[in-house]
Amino acid sequence: MSAATASSLSPAEARRVLYQLSLARAFEERVLKLVSDGSIRGTTHPYVGQEAVAVGTCLALRPDDLVISTHRGHGHLLAKGGDPKRLMAELFGKAAGYGGGKGGTQHLADFSIGHLGSNGVTGGGIPIGTGAALSVQMRGTGQVVAIFFGDGATNQGTFHESLNLASVWRLPAVYVCENNLYAMSTPFRDVCAIEHIAERAAAYGIPGVQVDGMDVMAVAAVVSPAVERARSGRGPTLIECKTYRFLGHSKSDQRVYRSKEEEAAWRERDPIARLRATLLEQGLATAAELDAIAREALAAVDDAVSFAQRSPFPEPDALTAGVFTDG
């Protein structure tokens, strides 16, 4: 994906990007309602506001490229081509879900589309993705692994060890940091002595790039050369996407640690509203077409909910399937 602007896409491609953003947003907003009314048990970590990172990154990948996700991973799976019906079914605990109804929101994977899994451990996916990049290199498949993680993960040892090895071995990996400014309720500025996470790339002799994570085309334009660098054998890149989660860390988070003024300022940069405005300005879509895209996304979520509600729960004998013990 060498394009840097929406105008370099065909009208159909540009509208598809908007649909992917809208689907991720509509899916998360519906999940929040379903958690609130008890239809979905447990909690959820909404991706609302950060959609441009997942969609922009996956726009720069080939279909056979791989991704590693996080605890806030619904948007990553959908952007990589995941089925909203199977995703919703998993959240409902149904057998038709990605994990047979046993994995839930933080344990999602679909190897058939190159999604190697989400992870409930902070920074837990980084070494897994690095290992996948080593496998790709050894097998000579020409694939690239995009590894998503948050700002909090960059203070974990897994981050530093993985980037060091990836640099030394020139692994085909792209490390995508979604810096939404807070690790749960802890401001990044309180736990890091540098202003930009991308600066840490210098310690490993690899490129470090910052990008507006609220602009889907800007993300794609930065990820694209990093993917080509990785694919050509020149090694990894660290990309810091400056983004913001509009809602709390999880369903129960009341966001008392940040101001309403800060939240309002970031909402002015809503990635969906920005792309809609760009498509209108560049004549790539009409207002009616944009409204139809929003309705299409909502309809897809409605279908996903209906599918999940109709689907059966796992049979009792499925309880131990996929469970292994030593001895």
Features:
Rossmann fold, single chain, alpha/beta, globular, 10 helices, 7 strands, two-stranded antiparallel ribbon, five-stranded parallel β-sheet, 327 residues
Describe the structure.
The protein is an alpha/beta fold and 327 residues long. It has a single domain, classed as 3-Layer(aba) Sandwich (Rossmann fold), CATH 3.40.50. It is 42% helix and 9% strand. The longest helix is centred in the N-terminal third of the chain and has 26 residues. It is globular.
Shape: globular
Mean pLDDT: 95
| Cα-to-Cα separation, first versus last residue | 49 Å
- How many domains? The number is 1
Looking at the structure, the CATH topology is Rossmann fold
Strand order of the largest sheet: 1-2-3-7-6
Based on helices, strands and strand pairing, what is the structural class? alpha/beta
CATH class: Alpha Beta
From the alpha carbons, calculate the radius of gyration and give it in angstroms: 19 Å
* Main sheet attributes: strand count, strand direction, barrel closure: 5 strands, parallel
Could you state the order of secondary-structure elements as H and E? HHEHHHEHEEEEHEHHH
Beta-strand percent range:
5-15%
**Helix share bin:** 40-55%
CATH level-two architecture: 3-Layer(aba) Sandwich
Unreliable sequence segments = none
* Strands, count: 7
CATH superfamily: Thiamin diphosphate (ThDP)-binding fold, Pyr/PP domains
Number of distinct helices: 10
